[in-house]
Specification:
By secondary structure, the protein is of the alpha/beta class. It folds into 2 domains: about 100 residues, Enolase-like, domain 1 (2-Layer Sandwich); about 260 residues, Enolase-like C-terminal domain (TIM Barrel), CATH 3.20.20. Helices cover about 35% and strands about 20% of the residues. The protein has 13 helices and 16 strands. An 8-stranded parallel barrel has the order 4-5-7-8-9-10-11-12, surrounded by 4 helices. The protein has a 3-stranded antiparallel sheet with strand order 1-2-3. About 50% of the residues are buried. The protein binds D-mannonic acid and magnesium ion. The site of magnesium ion (MG) has 5 residues, from loops. This is D-galactonate dehydratase family protein. Pfam families: MR_MLE_C, MR_MLE_N.
C-alpha cells in the first residue's frame, strides 16, 4: 500500500491546529495531529519541507521503518519540532493500518485492557470558592477526578485560571507573548488551603489533581508535596522543570504525594533516570509529541516495569485527533492511570468529527476502524490560522521565570 499524497492542514477553529493527512493508493487515508502550541508553523515547515516529500511512494504499512527513517535518518535527534512531525506521521500511519485491518485502533494494539478510561476535568477559579463551584459542576457532570487551580491573593494573572468564571482557559491568546508575574512564597502559602477546602466540601473519594506548571525549585516542591499529604492528591504535576532528572529524587525523598511529569518531554531518554529510579508515578507526554503510538508504546512499556502509569496530556491545544488516538491507547495500555480532558471549543468538534464519547467521568473508544477521528477540510478552511503565543512569566523583581 503506497503513500501517494501527504499534506498539512492549518486551521483555527477556536485555536490553532496543524493536522496531517496521508493518502494511499488503496483509497485509505490517515490523519495525524502535528500541533505544537505557539510554534505551529515551525512543525508545518518541518513536515512540508523535509518530511512529506520523502514519504511519497513508501509502503504505508512500514510504520517502524518510517519512524526510524525520520528519527535516525534526520541525523538531528529529538526535540519538540522534530518529534511532533514524527508523531503526526506515526498517528496517520497507525490510522491507515487499523483501517486496512478493519479494526478500531485499540484492537490492533492488543485489545481492551478496560471498558472505559477515567478522565479528569479542569476546575478553575479566581478564588477558592469559585473553584469549588466549578468542581461541583464537574462532579454533577459525572467526573470522578478533577484538576483544581485557583487564583492566589497578590498574584494578578496565574496559570490555569480563566479570566472570567465559566470561561474556557486558553493561554495562547496574543501574537506577542503576554507577561505574567509570579511569587513562589505567595503561592506556597496559599495552595494547601485550596486542597483543604476541596476535601472538606467533597470528601475523600474524589480524585484531586494539581498542576504547578514548572514553577518551583526541588526543595520548594518537596515542601509543597509534604504540606499537602493530608489531602492525598492523585498527583502533583510538573512541580519543577526537570531537564535535570535528579531534581525528582530530592522531591521523592521528602514526600509521598504522587508525582506526574513530562508534558514537555518528547523522548524516552528525557525520562530514563527518573523511571529507572522510580522517582515519578505518571508519564505525561502526549502521543502527538512523543513519537506517536510507536514512541509512547515503548515508553509506557518501559515505565510499566517500575510501577509507573500513563496520564496523557490532553489540553485544548492537542486536537481531537490526538485525544481520539489517546482514548484507544488508554483502552489498551496495561499500565493506564488517567487521561486529561480539557473540553474543546464546539468549533473544534465541528472541524474534527470523532467517535470517542464521554460517559460518567470516562471516555469510551469508538468501534470505527482506525483511531476514529477525521477532519472536515471544508469546515477547517473557514477558520484560518491566527498567530498566538504562550505567555512568559517573571518574578516580581523582573527575572524571567518558568511560565
Ligand atoms: C497544561 C497545559 O494541561 C496541562 O496540564 O499544563 O494547559 C499547558 O499549559 C498547555 O498545553 C501549553 O500549551
Ligand atoms: Mg500541565
Amino acid at each position: 500500500m503506497k503513500i501517494t499524497e501527504a499534506y498539512t492542514i492549518v486551521s483555527s477553529p477556536g485555536r490553532n491546529f496543524v493536522t496531517l493527512k496521508i493518502k494511499t493508493d488503496s483509497g485509505l487515508y490517515g490523519i495525524g495531529d502535528a500541533t505544537l502550541n505557539g510554534r505551529e508553523k515551525a512543525v508545518v515547515a518541518y513536515l512540508d519541507e523535509h518530511v512529506l516529500p520523502a514519504l511519497i511512494g513508501r509502503d504505508a504499512h512500514q510504520i517502524e521503518d518510517i519512524w526510524h527513517y525520520l528519527y535516525r535518518g534526520a541525523y538531528w535527534r529529538r526535540g519538540p519540532v522534530t518529534m511532533s512531525a514524527i508523531s503526526a506521521v506515526d498517528l496517520a500511519l497507525w490510522d491507515i493500518k487499523a483501517k486496512a485491518a478493519n479494526m478500531p485502533l485499540y484492537q490492533l494494539l492488543g485489545g481492551k485492557s478496560r471498558e472505559r478510561v477515567m478522565t479528569y476535568a479542569h476546575c478553575t477559579g479566581q478564588d477558592i470558592e469559585t473553584c469549588l463551584e466549578e468542581v461541583q459542576k464537574h462532579v454533577d457532570l459525572g467526573y470522578k477526578a478533577v484538576r483544581v487551580q485557583a487564583g492566589v491573593p497578590g498574584i494578578k494573572t496565574i496559570y490555569g485560571v480563566a479570566k472570567t468564571p465559566g470561561e474556557r482557559y486558553e493561554p495562547a491568546d496574543a501574537a506577542i507573548p503576554a507577561e505574567h508575574s509570579w511569587s513562589t512564597e505567595k503561592y506556597l502559602n496559599h495552595a494547601p488551603k485550596l486542597f483543604k477546602a476541596v476535601r472538606e466540601r467533597f470528601g475523600d473519594e474524589l480524585h484531586v489533581l494539581h498542576d504547578v506548571h514548572h514553577r518551583l525549585t526541588p526543595i520548594e516542591a518537596a515542601r509543597l508535596g509534604k504540606a499537602v499529604e493530608p489531602y492525598h492528591l492523585f498527583w502533583l504535576e510538573d512541580c519543577v522543570p526537570a531537564e535535570n532528572q535528579e531534581s525528582m529524587k530530592l522531591i521523592r525523598q521528602h514526600t509521598t504525594t504522587p508525582l506526574a511529569i513530562g508534558e514537555v518531554f518528547n523522548s524516552i531518554h528525557d525520562y530514563r533516570e527518573m523511571i529507572e529510579n522510580q522517582w515519578i508515578d505518571y508519564i505525561r507526554t502526549p502521543l502527538s509529541h512523543g513519537g506517536g503510538i510507536t514512541g509512547l508504546r515503548r515508553l509506557a512499556d518501559f515505565a510499566g516495569l517500575y510501577h509507573i502509569r500513563t496520564g496523557f496530556h490532553g489540553p485544548t491545544d492537542l486536537s481531537p485527533v490526538c485525544l481520539g488516538a489517546a482514548v484507544h491507547f488508554d483502552t489498551w495500555v496495561p499500565n493506564f492511570g488517567i487521561q486529561e480532558h480539557m473540553a474543546h471549543d464546539p468549533l473544534t468538534d465541528e472541524v474534527f468529527p470523532h467517535d470517542y464519547r464521554f460517559e460518567n467521568g470516562h471516555f469510551i473508544a469508538g468501534e470505527a476502524p482506525g483511531h476514529g477521528v477525521d477532519i472536515d477540510e471544508d469546515a477547517a478552511a473557514r477558520y484560518p490560522y491566527k498567530p498566538a503565543s504562550l505567555p512568559v512569566n517573571r518574578l516580581e523583581d523582573g527575572t524571567l521565570w518558568h511560565w
